Amino acid sequence: MRFLLICMTALTLISCEELEVNQFEYTTTTMMGRTQLLVTQDSVVVDFNGRGEPTHFARATQPQEWTALMLSLKEVDLDKIASLEAPSNKRATDAAPFAYFEFTTKDSTYRSESFDHKNPNSMLMPCMEEIIKIQEANNQ
Question: Which domains does the chain show, CATH number per domain?
Fold first, then answer.
């Protein structure tokens, strides 16, 4: 009986630590402006503000896109993303746009350190690959 109580307590603690992301945000910035891609289970929204005419695009999120995004976080420790080092620093010389991720849960928002567009720390690369697929689907 005591063993069962310990196991149930452990399972409860483990399940409480899982954070369910309800919004993915990918932002890129250049001298020309800022593009923000927001993905929720229901919608994909892209906004551009900067030089020229601001643009806004919205569509429904495909179920397989949401599933793939959630799976891409399987190995991501949200508490550590703010301190992950970027593998390159071309953004420092305007050779690449700078970018960052924000992941929103019910209780918190987790923001990554900035990185060169499409080149985050390896922990975030599976998520980056899914975001690129969503961006490509928007351009079709």
Answer: 19-138 (3.30.1560)
Residue 124 and residue 24 in contact, taking contact as beta carbons nearer than 8 Å: no
H or E element at residue 54? none
Length of the chain as a residue count: 140
Which long-range contacts (C-beta less than 8 Å, at least 24 apart) are formed by 102-108? 102/23, 102/24, 102/25, 102/27, 103/21, 103/23, 103/24, 103/25, 103/73, 103/78, 104/21, 104/22, 104/23, 104/24, 104/25, 105/19, 105/20, 105/21, 105/22, 105/78, 106/20, 106/22, 108/19, 108/78
d(CA 67, CA 79) in angstroms, rounded, equals 22
Q: Rounded to whole angstroms, how far apart are CA atoms 35 and 25?
A: 10
9-25 burial by CB neighbour count: b if 16+ within 10 A, else e?
A: eeeeeeeeeebebeebb
Per-residue pLDDT tens over the stretch 72-115:
999 999 999 999 999 999 998 888 999 999 999 999 999 999 99
Cα(35)–Cα(54) distance, rounded to whole angstroms?
Answer: 10
